[in-house]
Design a protein that fits this description.
Layout: H1 3-26, H2 34-37, H3 52-68, H4 71-80, H5 98-103, H6 109-121, H7 124-127, H8 137-143, H9 149-158, H10 173-179, H11 183-191, H12 203-216
Helix pairs in contact: 3-4, 6-9, 8-10, 9-11, 10-11, 10-12
């Protein structure tokens, strides 16, 4: 398969992983958090994206390994480039990390184990990285109607601050999970959200989330 085709597929899939979920929620979102609308996403390092050789030799195979949740292949790539700390680098034009891609993969036990191994190697700060659509890997897991609560728990257990990092237009992970019909994930997020008192919570989105959680009871 030619390199240009692979790069095109990666770009399309990178955008698709977030575009449809953000489009679905966009008409429902009005959090009133004007301060967040002016913030830039917390992007991973994009140095590999501007280097065609590095992109083809590192980003493409790491993307494929993450989509397949192939830890053997991924560990070889990570081991060959230990000096780069690749888990903090963007590997798609949408600035998705390997964890973003794996969190969007088909839910399975293999996917759970792959994500757990990634998270174990990542710092708390790397878990907080967002793609261009302001999605953390946790937000992507919450946005999937077939989302895997076990991978969400893995991420939250390492860094509870993820629950207070909003996606586009200030939509919180708890809201995303609720709109996706993720009952167990909603309960997990609510129980670990410190009663919705993080820096990005506003009276308006706190009230909206109280209503969402109440609707599950």
């Amino acid at each position: 398969m030619c390199t240009c085709y692979i790069k095109l597929v990666m770009r399309l899939q990178g955008y698709a992983s977030t575009f449809y979920s953000s489009l679905e929620f966009r008409s429902e979102m009005n959090t009133g958090s004007t301060s967040y609308s002016h913030r830039q996403p917390n992007l991973p390092c994009g140095d590999l994206l501007g280097n065609e050789d590095a992109y083809n030799k590192i980003c493409v195979p790491l993307y494929n390994a993450s989509m397949r949740c192939d830890w053997e292949a991924a560990s070889v790539i990570l081991g060959e480039h230990q000096g780069l700390d690749l888990l903090g680098f963007a590997i798609t034009e949408n600035y998705d990390t390997a964890l973003h891609i794996a969190s969007s993969a088909k839910s399975s036990r293999l996917m759970e184990m792959f994500v757990e191994k990634l998270v174990n190697k990542m710092t708390k700060e790397q878990l907080e990285l967002q793609n261009k659509c302001y999605y953390t890997a946790l937000c992507l897991a919450a946005a999937d109607s077939a989302g895997n609560v076990n991978i969400a728990m893995t991420m939250v257990e390492k860094n509870r601050a993820l629950l207070d990092i909003p996606a586009r237009e200030g939509l919180m992970p708890l809201s995303i999970a609720s709109r996706s019909g993720q009952r167990n994930m909603v309960q997990l997020f609510y129980d670990n959200s410190n009663k919705m008192t993080g820096d990005f919570w506003t009276d308006q989105n706190r009230s909206q989330n109280d209503e969402l959680v109440g609707a599950w009871d």
